[in-house]
Write a structure and sequence with these properties.
This protein has 260 residues and is mainly alpha-helical. Helices cover 80% and strands 0% of the residues. 35% of the residues are buried. Keywords: Membrane, Sulfate transport, Transmembrane, Transmembrane helix, Transport.
Length: 260
């Protein structure tokens, strides 16, 4: 009979302890508010505006993230080029950055600078606007998507692409017909995680787009503003919606990860 060692018991015990604390914290969020109050808050004008803005900006940001993350992940996985390590470090930096610092950097970049003026001439004002919400979500979620896609392409055998090239397909055709279909589970996982990060982005949105009531108010901003006002019912409702979106995203991610 296989013996269970102290090390194994300790690892499992720590895992169960942390899981229990997280479950207790999440369940508390659902048990504290009155369900009637939550239902009424869900249909309030502020919540409907916040939910609609979060969904629209989250979908737009996620699409933009995937458009950029696919070539970035593939380049980092397949090609050697100068300063590759430096590029990878900089692209991953927002993962370690506090969101407030990232938002401040973006505010300085898109403010009264050459870059900001170029965007303004293109009728794109990213400071304290809804467009700024999309920009903040994009830069926050991009590193997560590019890391997942790099790992996905790392696991795909390059021989399959070599065979495709030897049969006369171009590099682009090989990427489209061989690499992308093989990476479909990773692409799904990156899309889901990006959407969850976009919906949950707070600090970057607060600094770049501002926390203006019924203007740039996304779900995390609704939670923050209503806690500030002392309206705990609306704040808890925002928390429940955000938690539900995150739970669904993680569930889909775990399902997709099995196939990576």
């Amino acid at each position: 009979m296989r013996q269970i060692g102290i090390f194994q018991i300790s690892c499992i015990g720590i895992s169960l302890l942390v899981t229990f604390l997280l479950v207790f914290a999440i369940v508390s969020l659902f048990l504290v508010p009155d369900l009637t109050d939550v239902w009424e808050n869900l249909w309030s004008e502020e919540m409907r505006f916040s939910l609609k803005l979060s969904m629209v900006t989250g979908i737009v940001s996620t699409l933009m993230v995937m458009v950029f993350a696919l070539p970035i992940g593939y380049a980092l996985s397949r090609f050697d080029f100068p300063f590759k390590g430096f590029v990878k470090t900089i692209l991953d930096l927002p993962v370690a950055f506090p969101e407030l610092v990232l938002g401040l950097c973006l505010l300085l970049l898109f403010g009264n600078t050459v870059v900001g003026e170029v965007f303004k001439r293109l009728s794109i004002n990213l400071v304290f606007t809804k467009q700024g919400v999309v920009a903040a979500q994009f830069f926050t979620a991009l590193p997560y998507a590019s890391r997942i896609l790099k790992s996905t392409f790392d696991y795909i055998n390059p021989r399959l692409e070599f065979v495709s090239r030897s049969l006369g397909y171009s590099q682009m055709e090989t990427f489209y017909h061989v690499s992308l279909p093989l990476a479909k589970n990773g692409i799904l996982a990156a899309t889901v995680i990006s959407f969850a990060r976009c919906i949950g982005t707070f600090g970057t949105v607060l600094i770049l787009a501002g926390g203006t009531y019924m203007k740039t108010e996304v779900l995390p901003m609704t939670l923050y503003l209503n806690i500030s006002y002392g309206n705990m019912g609306m704040a808890l409702t925002s928390g429940i919606v955000l938690t539900t979106v995150s739970f669904i995203a993680i569930f889909i991610f775990e399902k997709a990860e099995v196939g990576i």
